[in-house]
Amino acid sequence: MSDNFSLSDLGSTQESSASFKLPKKASSTPSTTNSPQPRKPAVIVTQLDDMEVVQEKSKKPVEQIDPKYLHADLPSNFYFYDFDTLGVGPVLGFHQAKFSRAAKEKRTRYMVDAVSTLLPEGISAWDLTIPDFYWLLYWIRMTYYTKVQLIHTAVCSNPKHIHRIQQGELPKESLVSVHTLSKSILSEEVFDPKPLEAFLETADLSFLDNSPFTLAPSCITDIVDIEENLLSHENYPEIEYLVDYAGYLQNKDPGIPRLSMQQRCEFVETLTAEDLYTIEQFRTLVSAYGVEESIRFTCPECRAESETKISISAHSFL
């Protein structure tokens, strides 16, 4: 995944149903310091020395719990959650209806709802980090939609082709072509916690001391919050910059109602450039994993071969 991950490029808050796993050597004791505390769906602990080691019980594979679930290994390696295995059930007409509605209304909410109903009780898609959620969409498509072909509208970027259009030799429309593809190229990167843990050992998070916030990875709930409560706001162009920082602030106390993206943006407005840079470093470290998809196509006009990145959406399941 790109280091320049932007929440505003993705754009009602859903209550989380899962709690989050503390990394090894992390204390489960509530703290009043600026060290990030447990929250739903993810938690980062900044102090890694002289702390209690959390002993985890071994768990049966998902397939042994319920044969209808297939095991999916998230690219985060479950680092941010209190569960360490994930099963995904088969896609039925009920889920397909939600994907169809998501495509027609262009609302992420219905995709998240559909994925949530595929997961075991006690685990919600609303709690997944953004890279994990989109990776899971790809996994679902590759596992349960093996006969679905991709329809992609491509734009040729061949300089010679563009030059001929500028010279009036070809119409501008010749740059655009529609391709039916049976496969794409997926590039996956797995989360490495070591750089994050090293950063948190020395990071100055004192700006969070007197706030209700802690640092935590952004989750898919934040994307829905942005889509439904901020994108249509007349002042969104002014606060778009703040969104990319506010998404990595979450409640210190997981027991209180989740604070909205708007409330978090108001806090970000009060931060110094140094504080924003600290959040930016954190954002980079907790976002550098996941999956990217690209396709190769040949322009029917000039025969130039190109590769372009594409993004999964609800249309991918129809």
Structure notes:
- The chain contains ten helices and nine strands.
- It is an alpha+beta fold and 318 residues long.
- It has one domain (7-147, 185-290).
- Strands 5-8-9 form a three-stranded antiparallel sheet, covered by helices on one side.
- Helix 2 packs antiparallel against helix 3.
- The longest helix is centred in the middle third of the chain and has 15 residues, at 130-144.
- The two termini are 26 Å apart.
- Mean pLDDT is 79; it is low at 1-5 and 8-61.
What tags apply to this protein structure?
about 325 residues; disordered N terminus; two-stranded antiparallel ribbon; alpha+beta; about 30% helix; about 15% strand; 3-stranded antiparallel sheet
Give the structure's gist in a few sentences:
The protein is α+β, with helices and mostly antiparallel strands and 318 residues long. Helices cover 32% and strands 13% of the residues.
Rg over CA atoms: 22 Å
| Helical residues, percent | 25-40%
The rough form would be described as: globular
Approximate strand percentage: 5-15%
Structural class, from secondary structure content? Answer: alpha+beta
The main pleated sheet reads as: 3 strands, antiparallel
Mean pLDDT: 79
* N-to-C order of helices and strands: HEEHHHEHEEHEHHEHHEE
Runs with pLDDT <50, length 5+? 1-5, 8-61
Task: Count up the domains.
Answer: 1
* Count, helices: 10
Number of strands: 9
Through-space gap between termini: 26 Å
Strand order of the largest sheet: 5-8-9
